[in-house]
Amino acid sequence: MANNKLGSIQTPSLYQQKTKNSNVDFTFIDLFAGIGGTRLAFESANGECVFSSEWDKYCQKTYQANFGEIPHGDITKIKADEIPDFDILVAGFPCQPFSSIGKRQGFMHETQGTLFYDLLRIIKNKNPQAFLLENVPGLTTHDGGKTFDIILKSLDEIGYKVFHQILDAADFGVPQQRKRIYIVGFRKEIGKNFNFKFPKPLGKKAYINNFLEKDVKGYSISKHLQETYLFKKDDGRPVLIDQSSKIQVKTLVSTYHKIQRLTSTFVKDGETGVRLLTVNECKAIMGFPKDFSIPVSRTQMYRQMGNSVAVPAVSAVAKQIANTLKHFKK
Fold first, then answer.
1. CA-CA distance, 155 to 181, in Å (whole number)?
2. All residues at 6 or more sequence positions from 87 whose CB lies less than 8 Å from its CB, including other chains
3. What is the mean pLDDT of residues 276-287?
């Protein structure tokens, strides 16, 4: 394993190719894979990825650069029987608005037309031991909580005991406040009357000042933009950080490249005195190792990082899932 100090985990070498005969504890599939943050997390728990799916061509390019494979495309066109058998399904699925609650005619009816439907379709067909679904906390309150209720009910109907909890990545070794809901399910027949325990906070915080680069060139925000937009009001916005900023930054979003004064964090550095976060700083904020390759434009890099998972947080959940399955196998 490569020793990685960007977060609380040691990430496996990005270029190590496991074989089907490798000594792994479980296999998993990586759906809505993005650039592979979830894959890194589950590999760190000694899992082997046997299938991946991601439709975005720029994410596919980054995924290929780091894992040596191009993910399969549109999940709605992938038949379940085309996917190899696996132990755990993992997915950071998009939360599309569910068109209607319907007439309670079962999960297939109520989720038809959503990407969650395709996750259910694959889980029902492949019957894995467990799954992890990740999403934004707003999923729990969407449509007055009805969407989340359908999701939990649907997963129960196809035979899974489901647990869920909102975790903040700031509690798992990254210098960023990033809350996400994690939905974990286990096939009911593998164990009864048990409670899955989500990982506890590490108790040690990481702060952004320890990850900032110095004398950076090429990421500067022009003086004109600073004067006419960023600092046009004396309202404490945007947030500016430097080597003394012992804080966790706000959630990194996919639109960071648009330089939004109300929601963004910028650095006191660079040719003009204020700059954007660098690629290495974004990797640190998300818990990716420094040697993770980003072979796309800077705009796409920000989009990919902002849409990704915080690797150490997912890794902590992955290890809990793996340990739970080990317990049942004894």
1. 16
2. 26, 27, 28, 47, 128, 129, 130, 325
3. 97
Our answer to whether residue 95 is catalytic in this structure is yes
pLDDT (mean) for 100-124? 64
Selection from 13-22, 101-110, 264-273 with the highest mean pLDDT: 264-273
21 belongs to a structural domain: no
Determine the Cα–Cα distance for residues 66 and 15; give it in Å rounded to an integer.
Answer: 7
Can you tell me the distance from the alpha carbon of 109 to that of 103, in angstroms, rounded to the nearest whole number?
8
Residue 166 and residue 96 in one domain: yes
Task: Give the CA count within 13 Å in the CB-facing half-sphere of 178.
Answer: 26
Same domain, yes or no: 146 and 157: yes
Co-location of 154 and 224 in the same domain: no
Res 22: pLDDT: 65
- The pLDDT of 255-266, averaged and rounded, is 92
Which CATH number goes with the domain that contains 233? Answer: 3.90.120.10
**Structure-derived torsion over alpha carbons of residues 163, 164, 168, 171, reported in degrees to the nearest 10:** -20
pLDDT value at 11 more than 50: no
Question: Are 174 and 83 members of one domain?
Answer: yes
Q: Which domain holds residue 294?
A: 208-306
Whether residue 220 sits in one domain with residue 159: no
Residue 173, by phi and psi: left (phi above 0), alpha (psi -120 to 50) or beta? left
Quick check: helix, strand or coil at residue 249? strand
**Mean pLDDT, rounded, of the chain:** 87
Judging by DSSP bridges, how do beta strands 26-31 and 130-135 pair with one another? unpaired
How does residue 13 score in pLDDT terms, banded at 50, 70 and 90?
very low
Would residue 18 count as lying in a domain? no
Task: State the pTM of this model.
Answer: 0.87
Choose, from 49, 59, 95, 282, the residue flagged as catalytic: 95
